[in-house]
Amino acid sequence: MLSKKLEDALNVQINAELWSAYLYLSMSAYFAREGKSGFENWFRVQALEEKDHAMKIFDYIITRNGKVDLKPIKAVPETWQSPLDVFEASLKHEKVVTALINDLVALAKEEKDYATENMLNWFVDEQIEEEATTSQHIDSLKMIGDNGFGIYTMDKELKTRTYTPLKTNE
Ligand code: FEO
After folding, report:
1. CA–CA distances in Å: residue 72 to residues 19, 24, 42, 67
2. pLDDT over 70, % of the chain
3. Domain total for the chain?
């Protein structure tokens, strides 16, 4: 049985992951307006992955006989200055998510809920990867600067990203 405190915190995290999905969808829509279909694709896949993150916690709460509590999703920004601006906003957001996950792990330890701690370890690893990938894209964009051919090449590369659904109830 999940403690009430942990159940509440996991429900807050579902909301944070869905907000992330919303944010990345908004970024995808921004790139669609800008005519950058590769960037658009990359953030669309990112949004789908965030939805899976939410579902992983959703399924976990159900498996533990807890109560899923879906809260309202706050509005997200709609526009940015450049691809670099988008990825920098994305990295800033991922750092916030990493801090939230770390707080959840600390709470699971405090509550001596080792099953939840174990489930959350997947998110700890995922955050390392998310921050690293986003940082790599920031480095590339800084190198490219305002070189149109560089942006064109990166856009083509980002178009190759595909979505692999996560098995959320394992
Ligand atoms: Fe689910 Fe990108 O954090």
Report:
1. 9, 17, 26, 16
2. 100
3. 1
Say which DSSP state 4 is in: H
Full-prediction pTM beyond 0.85?
Answer: yes
From CA 44, how far away is CA 140, in angstroms rounded?
Answer: 20
For residue 101, the CA-to-ligand 1 centroid distance in Å is: 10
Structural domain boundaries, residue 124: 4-158
Question: Token digits for 153?
Answer: 């090449």
Containing H/E element for 102?
helix 83-110
Q: Per residue in 81-91, pLDDT tens?
A: 999 999 999 99
Specify if 164 maps to a domain. Answer: no
Residue 53 in contact with ligand 1 by CB distance below 6 A: yes
Average pLDDT of the residues in 128-140: 98
Compute φ and ψ for 24, nearest 5 degrees: -70, -30
**Tokens at residue 88, please?**
């920098």
